[in-house]
Write a structure and sequence with these properties.
This protein has 272 residues and is of the alpha/beta class. It has 2 domains: 163 residues, 3-Layer(aba) Sandwich (Rossmann fold); 78 residues, Alpha-Beta Plaits, CATH 3.30.70. The strands form 2 sheets. The protein has a 4-stranded parallel beta sheet, sandwiched between helices. It has a 3-stranded mixed beta sheet with strand order 5-6-7, covered by helices on one side. β6, α9 and β7 form a beta-alpha-beta unit. α4 runs parallel beside α5 and α8 runs antiparallel to α9. The radius of gyration is 19 Å and the shape is globular. The C terminus is likely disordered.
Length: 272
């Protein structure tokens, strides 16, 4: 296992070493954090991070991503965009992620051209091949590379390497854009995105680590990590969540008894 992981890391370093420069699409999660860290070690100043700020990105995630690149002393560029203006996106079709990735990585590509950088990379890993991710089609069309995937690194591999490199994101819970909280076919609006984010912020402030607030019309369905479900066996927490979510604008609030699990909503109805 140890030798296998070292081989994968060696392959990642070798692949990155074949490039003269690189733009890393940086989300602030453990995958892109590890990729950026290794790329910086290989390419030094010839790597920059590009962070895309949009209405579907939680403010916490933007704050964490910017702080991370500043602490690493990596050059970075923030693109401010509005994916709600992408044709068809707000209607939330099953290829929503494809529409979004095609537009956003098109903008990242223009930034790379401005910096005269040939290569653009994202943080996809080999575990992503086992899930329905239409956005990966857009990446291939735009020539975006996935070095972690090419080195056959799994999410567990990435977390272990990030832990060894003392990256503070090594155990950061999985994140996804706020649009993924909407069932396919249900309109995504700025107001409802803010409702979802406010609900998740409240739960995170209570100490929950892995949360999703799924929204359908005026109903919220809360998912937390399976091991965190027992926290709801507390009347004070239940009452506080109920009152806060009503204040946010939800008419009904429920909890998914199975808890959060990766890919649980990748059906014709909804997405991870």
């Amino acid at each position: 296992m140890e030798a296998d992981l070292n081989e994968k890391l060696g392959q990642l370093i070798y692949n990155l070493g074949s490039m003269s420069n690189l733009v890393v699409a940086f989300s602030g999660g453990v995958d892109s954090s590890l990729l950026l860290k290794v790329a910086q070690g290989v390419l030094n100043r010839n790597v920059i991070a590009v962070i895309v700020d949009s209405p579907t990105l939680p403010r916490r995630e933007l704050h964490d991503a910017v702080n991370f690149v500043k602490e690493m002393k990596v050059g970075y560029h923030v693109i401010e965009t509005d994916n709600l203006l992408i044709e068809g996106f707000a209607n939330n079709p099953v290829n929503r992620c494809y529409l979004c990735k095609r537009d956003l990585f098109g903008q990242i590509k223009r930034v790379a051209e401005d910096y005269n950088i040939e290569w653009i990379a994202d943080g996809s890993n080999s575990d992503d091949l086992g899930d329905d991710r239409p956005g990966m089609k857009a990446l291939k069309e735009l020539g975006v590379i996935s070095p972690l995937l090419e080195a056959d690194l799994t999410k567990a591999d990435i977390r272990e390497l990030a832990r060894r490199m003392q990256l503070k994101t090594w155990d950061k819970p999985a994140a996804a854009c706020l649009a993924s909280r909407f069932a396919y076919g249900h309109t995504i609006s700025r107001e409802k995105l803010q409702m979802v984010e406010s609900g998740e912020d409240y739960l995170l402030d209570l100490g929950f680590r892995q949360v999703r607030v799924r929204i359908q019309d005026d109903t919220a369905r809360i998912e937390v990590a399976p091991q965190e479900r027992a926290k709801f066996f507390n009347e004070q927490i239940i009452d506080g969540v109920h009152d806060k979510f009503k204040e946010i604008g939800f008419a009904h609030v429920s909890m998914d008894l199975a808890g959060y699990r990766t890919g649980s909503k990748n059906t014709a109805e909804a997405e991870k």
